[in-house]
Amino acid sequence: MAKFIYKMQNILEIKEKMENQEKIAFGIANQKLNEEQEKLQELLVRQAGYEQRLKELTSGELDLKEINNCKNAINSMKSFVRDQMIAVHTAQRNLENARIRMNDAMKERKTQENLKEKAFENFKQELLAEESKITDELVSYTYHNNKNNEETDSE
């Protein structure tokens, strides 16, 4: 029996490898986004801590130097938070781009798999047609052979 060989198998394998690479890139981008979000959360907690400290400093005995230090720390934290929000936004954009590339790679792989399935279906149809042709030839040969034998016997 004939064996099915997909002529573009190497392209399918390349598409599968590309899809796997894009999945890995997506995972890395997702991990980076999580890390950036955690950093932002830590900065917000630190900022809240400084704000709480400032409230404590202004409610009790006033230490102007400590209050100024605390205000400077809050301003610095606001700047860090702003920068970190930009980093989170960038990581979200990178994640979205990675998701789009991964989806495109998956579509390309699925397209190749569909082409392979169609080629296999065509192969099966050709095989059935060949078997049918052989069967017809065999039946025809047997019929003509029996007819020739009957004619020879009747003579």
Describe the protein's topology.
Elements: H1 9-59, H2 64-154
Helix pairs in contact: 1-2
Folded structure, characterized:
- It is a single chain.
- With 155 residues, the protein is mainly alpha-helical.
- The chain has a domain at 9-114: Helix Hairpins.
- It contains 2 helices and no strands.
- It starts with 8 loop residues before the first helix and ends with a helix.
- The model has no long low-confidence stretch (mean pLDDT 91).
Brief account:
This protein has helices spanning 9-59, 64-154. The protein is mostly helical and 155 residues long.
CATH topology of the domain at 9-114: Helix Hairpins
SSE order: HH
Characterize the main sheet.
none
**How many helical stretches?**
2
Percent of residues in helices comes to over 70%
Radius of gyration: 37 Å
Distance between the termini: 43 Å
Extract low-pLDDT stretches.
Answer: none
The count of strands amounts to 0
Query: Outline, from the CA principal axes?
Result: rod-shaped
* CATH C-level name of the domain at 9-114: Mainly Alpha
Strand residue percentage: under 5%
By CATH, the architecture of the domain at 9-114 is named Orthogonal Bundle
Helix/sheet category:
mainly alpha
Mean of the pLDDT scores?
91
Question: What structural keywords apply?
Answer:
mainly alpha; Helix Hairpins; rod-shaped; 155 residues
